[in-house]
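Homework help board

Subject: predicted structure for assignment chain

Our instructor gave us this sequence and asked us to write out the predicted structure in token form, then describe one feature. I got the tokens but I'm not sure how to describe them. Can anyone check?
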Amino acid sequence: MINSVSRATHSQPAAQPALASQKAPQLKAPAPPDTVTISAAKQIVQEAIETSSRRPWEAASGDHQAKRLLAREAAVKVATK
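My token output:
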């Protein structure tokens, strides 16, 4: 036999406070920019061991030091002829 339910109780969901449902945005401090500095001595050593075949490419791309080195090498070649 089927019994009918005479009284049904439905539970209402508990009301959430408005502040709890909205989370405050997390503010993060900006990260410091990544910078790399090379000491002057390290730069001098790098230029000294640099191959002469790479200099024309660097000079063409705007490297002033490579331009000066190419000019100096050209002057030495003219002086030794």
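Reply (TA_rk): Your tokens look well-formed. For the description, you could write something like this. The radius of gyration is 38 Å. That's the kind of observation they're looking for.
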